[in-house]
Write a structure and sequence with these properties.
9 strands; 17% strand; Rossmann fold; two-stranded parallel ribbon; alpha/beta; disordered N terminus
């Protein structure tokens, strides 16, 4: 975690990792965007802070390493994490879920036509519907393949109950990567 960000709970659904700590920096970067307290950069004196600096995080890591977990495995871990959120939503007042991940299949509509992972994605779809009905905001990365798969969205962002998060450059073109952290 970055200075000023805090986590009230940590959980991991991967049997191969011992703790929910971020092993590649991406989750830490997203956490700082979400809940980082105010800070001043030492290099140029500029000020920054997260968009909700008073919020708490519950970290539910589902990937072993940077894009190395097959989608079927990761999707099952996400399903397990969503079960935890459903079971604990009221206790921890969970109002939002951010999923900074996606499958490698791109979709042009929410029907998931041609989905090679339809069975597990259908399981996720049901869990997302449950959370959305409970008023939980769900957001997910549209994907990192906008340059090679234009006009597509990866799952879970392709789900009708999940808000798709993406970026464009100053010319309005899809970005290949939304964020670049440290040594990635």
């Amino acid at each position: 975690m970055v200075p000023g960000a805090r986590s009230s709970r940590g959980w991991i659904s991967s049997a191969s990792a011992a703790n929910p700590l971020d092993n590649d920096g991406h989750g830490t970067g997203v956490a700082s965007i979400l809940v980082g307290n105010g800070y001043t950069y030492s290099g140029d004196g500029s000020y920054g802070q997260g968009i909700a600096p008073g919020a708490n995080l519950i970290v539910l890591r589902t990937d072993d390493a940077r894009n190395k977990t097959p989608w079927g495995t990761q999707a099952q871990r996400i399903a397990n994490a969503m079960d935890w959120v459903i079971a604990n939503q009221a206790q921890y007042n969970i109002v939002a879920v951010n999923m900074s991940t996606g499958s490698t299949a791109g979709f042009t509509d929410e029907s998931l036509t041609g989905d090679p992972n339809l069975a597990i994605d259908q399981v996720l779809k049901d869990k997302f519907a449950t959370l959305a009905a409970a008023g939980v905001f769900l957001g997910a990365s549209a994907g990192n393949d906008g340059a090679t798969m234009p006009n597509t969205v990866e799952y879970p962002a392709a789900d009708p109950n999940v808000y798709s998060i993406s970026s464009v450059n100053s010319s309005g073109q899809n970005q290949q990567l939304c964020f670049v952290w440290g040594s990635q």
